Amino acid sequence: MAATALEIRDLSKSYVVNGAPLPVLAGISLDVAPGEFVSVVGASGCGKSTLLRLIVGLEQEHDGRLAYDGRPIDGPGRERAIVFQEHRLFPWLTAVQNVEAGLARSDLGKSERRRIALEHLALVGLSNFAEALPKQLSGGMAQRVAIARALVSRPGLLLLDEPFGALDALTRSHLQREVLRIVRQEGLSAIIVTHDVDEAILLGDRVVVMQPHPGRIAEVIVEEEGPAREPGTPEAVALRRRILHRLGED
Amino acid sequence: MTSTTSAVDLPLPSGAVARPRRLFLPHPRRLLPVLEGLVLPAVLLGAWALTSHQGWLPAQILPGPGSVLDAFRELLASGELGDHIRASLSRVILGFALGGGLGLLLGVAMGVSRAASEIIEPVFVWFAQVPPIALAPLLILLVGIDEALKVLIVAKAAMIPLAVNTAEGVRNVPRQWREVGRVFGFSPARTVFGLVLPAALPTVFSGVRTGLTHAWLTLVAVELIASTEGLGYLMVWGRQLFQLEFVLLSVVVIALIGFALDRGLNRIEARIGAWR
Predict the structure, then answer these.
(1) Domain-by-domain residue ranges, chain B?
(2) Is residue B175 a contact partner of residue A88, using CB atoms and an 8 Å limit?
(3) pLDDT tens digits, residue range A135-169?
(4) If A65 and its partner were Cys, which of A9, A116, A171, A192 is the partner (CB 3.0–4.6 Å)?
(5) Whether domain A33-62+71-79+155-250 has CATH 3.90.1490.10
(6) CATH class of segment(s) B63-275
(7) Looking at the partner chain, which of A88, A105, A171 has a beta carbon nearest the beta carbon of B177?
(8) For chain A, domain boundaries
(9) A190 contacts A160 by C-beta, under 8 angstroms
(10) What is the ipTM score, two decimals?
(11) How many Å apart are CA A141 and CA A99, to the nearest integer?
(12) CA pair distance B11, B3, nearest whole angstrom
């Protein structure tokens, strides 16, 4: 296995606003190793969502190098899946049909698709809700279905764009731990983009702190497994203070 | 682990999963609004009966409900009413299928492609301003006064709302959903049939309803001008014979059929949009 799953080298991106280029990302360099969970934390407007959209391939124009498994990224691909902040399930499909939509690229038979989709619903604890429509699911359940949809095609890299931001605190806390468990269990690389510092500390093997105007990396903090991960421990509080301090400078 | 975390989420509301529905009959609970809806028709019927009974208007001009009922029985028994209804319905169905299908295709083209929209839309907006019935003088010269005339005019009436609504529905498919299709690699066919059309369906369907209503109204108008059968013709015939009960009977039957068409589509629409 290559030592680098995702390679980002000197990545820059501008939008054209009122005829003038507006830089949103400048000189981003970051490698993500196989099986590594990276948190990207920053205030809104720091370009962190744009970074994810570039990695997943929804946006393509950029300067610098962006490659997965050694191949430049030139659009969406099976090996990179994303969970958005909103669940984005198709409301006219049942939960299991929504998960099956994640298999659009595969040439598996109908019954095989169904079996794999049900397996992934079970992975997120929703076996009993396979036939429910999205409007019948709570926000947390809908987001679980979206996670199952992202995982069903067995991607190597899971991208999470503030996926728990719209959920209540208790549901959020449960889902964070569940995603961590699944990512470890499946041996995935993952990147979560968030403005919640505690979430970044809990999930990330490394925390990438970004600053805005234009979006750039201020600091990359390597975390060990252990008390520094758990909110409320002295180590976590110290780390939190350090990140907040970084976010405060501009 | 999963069982404890699932407990955080709200349970599924009981009975929320698809239960059998009746398409056309109202639920007993909904009978009261239906009864309320009958109040005004009953009052009008009473006023009509009273007017003709008191002789405020001569019977040749306003026949009473009784003579209209007699006319109904007579035409029903002779099979004439059935023939007229059949003639009108088959024209509306044919015209609606033709115009609606064309409108759907045009609408999808205008909604999907900016180029198609720029080519089609100006002509389309211009054409939409022409009342369908105003095409009759020109079309009579081109296709004569037979079935083709009625079908084409009805088709024109149905096409416009379908094209407009389809284009709007297709254009307004949320970008968020389109992005999901791109991320998971939907084929062009799946994007159209599995994403764009289902998302646009509620809007398209209100175009279907408007289109069918327009088709029905226009058909009756064209039958007044040029036909030898159909409900519009029955009206003309009744007027020429000065048998106004046939005219009134036609009015009632036309209204009832239009009402039934609209309500039927309303039910289908509610069912199609059940996921909302």
Answers:
(1) 63-275
(2) no
(3) 999 888 999 999 999 999 999 999 999 999 888 88
(4) A9
(5) no
(6) mainly alpha
(7) A88
(8) 33-62+71-79+155-250, 90-153
(9) yes
(10) 0.89
(11) 13
(12) 13
